[in-house]
Amino acid sequence: MANETTATPAAPEVAERTRGGQVYRPNVDILETRDELTLVADVPGVKSDAIDIDFEDGVLTIQGKVEPRYGEKRNFVLREYGIGDFYRTFRVSEEIDASRIEAECAGGVLTVHLPKAEKAKPRKIAVKTA
Questions:
Q1: b/e per residue, 94-122, with b = 16+ CB within 10 A?
Q2: Do 36 and 103 touch, CB atoms closer than 8 A?
Q3: How large is the greatest C-alpha to C-alpha distance in the chain, in angstroms?
Q4: CA-to-CA distance for 130 and 66, rounded, in angstroms?
Q5: Is-above-0.85 flag for pTM?
Q6: Which SS3 state, helix, strand or coil, does residue 123 take?
Q7: In degrees, to the nearest 5, what angle opens at C-alpha 32 toward C-alphas 29 and 36?
Q8: What would the CATH number be for the domain defined by 22-120?
Q9: What is the mean pLDDT of each run of 10 residues along the chain (130 residues)?
């Protein structure tokens, strides 16, 4: 059984920043079925309307903006939770039907459905008797 990945992180890129702050690389799981790839990413603190997903030339890009939790000028006794945006790209080796890509975000988890194009789906070939 070959251990082949169907979506791999693209070359490391630096997100173009329009504001200062930390940028995090979200952890993801990618699952494959006959009909689609499903990407599940941890993006705590990101609201659905603050996520940008692009798919172009076989590259999936996910960006999420996180708003600060607290107002300014806070005196923290302990501060472990980092606030920052999320950014990650993937080169997808499967042929994807870009017009059918869907995504939802709930509870800090982003799920992106990447339906395979019909020509990329496996098919069974019937063998006829002579």
A1: bebeeeebeeebeeeebebebbbeeeeee
A2: no
A3: 83
A4: 64
A5: no
A6: coil
A7: 115
A8: 2.60.40.790
A9: 47 52 92 95 94 94 88 82 89 90 96 90 81
**Rounded CA gap, 89 and 128, in Å?**
45
Structure tokens given for 8: 């791999």
Give the Cβ contact number of residue 92 at 10 Å: 19
Q: For residue 88, what are its two tokens?
A: 């990650």
3-state secondary structure 39-102: EEEECCCEEEEEEEEEEECCEEEEEEEECCCCCCCCCCCCCCCCCEEEEEEEEECCCECHHHCE
d(CA 81, CA 20): 17
